[in-house]
Amino acid sequence: MHPIAVTEHVAKSSRHTTFYLAAGLEDGPLIIFVHGWPELSLSWRHQLPAFAALGFRAIAPDMRGYGRSSVYARHEDYALEPIVEDMRELLAHLGRERAVWVGHDWGSPVVWSLASHHPELCTAVASLCVPYWTLERGLDAVLPLIDRAIYPEAEFPAGQWEYMRFYEESFEKATKGFEANPYNTVKAIFRKGNWEGQLRPALTAYVRKNSGWFGGKGAAPDVPRDADVVTEQDLRTYAAALERNGFFGPDSWYMNHEANAAYTAKALNDGRLDIPVLFLAARYDYVCEAVASRLAEPMGEKCSDLTRVVINSGHWMAQEKPLEVNRALVHWLATWAPTGWPVG
């Protein structure tokens, strides 16, 4: 059996360029995987060939600010509204009317926003780690959902989201800390989940208190690579892209809470989703903690056809537990979103 080929492509318009990876039959049902911070289309390396083998046309773009896609110099260029337009242009470039959209991390608010503003472009929508009707509404919207037993308000006003406040207050310092050594940064960040972190504050809760990431030391430590999440080649690819583009773009995704909230306020049907929705919660993701906390509560009220699955992983779910993620996506598509499944 020949291995599935993953090929490189570019979608270019007068307003934006999107680099993307593709696998599978040109006429297969379309599934588009949208990465988050600080990743690349590479983050879906375990999903693209698997879904191509099932008969899908599987696509993963580099999002704006990342990899070989357009990079911009203003914070406001990284708000959800123009990013959704990037994805609409990508879909048109692919010659398709709709797709199954799968997002992770900041890719989740992107696919949620597509579904709530342009449901006609979505056969179904799935998210890893970030529930619907949360971060796309801006940071203030998730503050009431914080587990105050773990994050006392006096000590952690923004709970596990304290690091987002640090971006707002000390953007240049945060960015320079990551850029001091991009290789060590991604090596420190891409790590598997750890059950021992349950019921304890996430490390992100201390970023503002420490006046910076990594204990406020100004640069990432040189820690061993987590082979359960990334290979050495993967790390080098991530680091090279971040070395080339810098962290201004990726970090600017955190600087548009007010604009994103205003955009979400214009969602159709008051944000209610009537298409098939899958949410994969990571049991050991202590930032996007959606298993024991209230973070996923709003989603239950806004989705009429919702499937929830818990994966025993950390935040980098698609890379740490690819078999479990693929299995959950396939089962959901075959059972609950059959119109997105290959026929024949």
Placed side by side, the strands forming the largest sheet appear as: 1-2-4-3-5-6-7-8
Task: Give the biggest beta sheet.
Answer: 8 strands, mixed
Could you tell me the number of beta strands? Answer: 8
CATH class: Alpha Beta
* Fraction of residues in helix: 25-40%
Rg, nearest Å: 19 Å
| CATH architectural designation | 3-Layer(aba) Sandwich
The CATH superfamily is Alpha/Beta hydrolase fold, catalytic domain
Distance between the termini: 20 Å
Descriptive overview:
With 344 residues, the chain is an alpha/beta fold. It has a single domain, classed as Alpha/Beta hydrolase fold, catalytic domain (Rossmann fold, 3-Layer(aba) Sandwich). It contains 13 helices and 8 strands. An 8-stranded mixed β-sheet has the order 1-2-4-3-5-6-7-8, sandwiched between helices. The chain starts with 5 loop residues before the first strand and ends in a 9-residue tail after the last helix. The relative contact order is 0.16. The model has no long low-confidence stretch (mean pLDDT 96).
In short:
The chain is α/β, with parallel strands linked by helices and 344 residues long. Helix content is 32%, strand content 14%.
